[in-house]
Amino acid sequence: MATDLNSDSYPTAGQLERTIAQKVRTLYRNQFGHQPSRVDCHLLGNKLVISLEDVITPIEKLLVEAQSSSLVTQVRAFIDEAIKPKLQELVEEISQVRVTNCLYDTAIDSGCAGAIIILANPPQVRQAKSLAKKK
């Protein structure tokens, strides 16, 4: 991970992760009228892992209950493909790094979704002050 300990203009990795998680939650709320109950984001060098819980919308739940799970699977596949470019744009805007690949999938049974995003480079982050003091 690229770091510049002297620049307070860069976020810490934790701040970057929290900002992306909050924006993903907002994206879901704005796009689907439903936001995940939990969004976790972890930066691992030039990789970003995002996990989401309770992403299945009320209408999808209703269709599953009505034994239309194949329809839900088809609809969710389209939703997943539609969300990927929006997610990619959001990550690029916040991290200021180009996304080279975005993998995204939803498990309808568990209501969880996940993304693995590959960045062209690790984003510029600074070391957290609490970590800097320990060294």
Automatic annotation (TrEMBL):
Domain Na+-translocating membrane potential-generating system MpsC: 12-120
Matches recorded under InterPro entries: MpsC
Pfam (any one): MpsC
Protein name according to UniProt: Na+-translocating membrane potential-generating system MpsC domain-containing protein
Organism expressing this protein natively: Hyella patelloides LEGE 07179
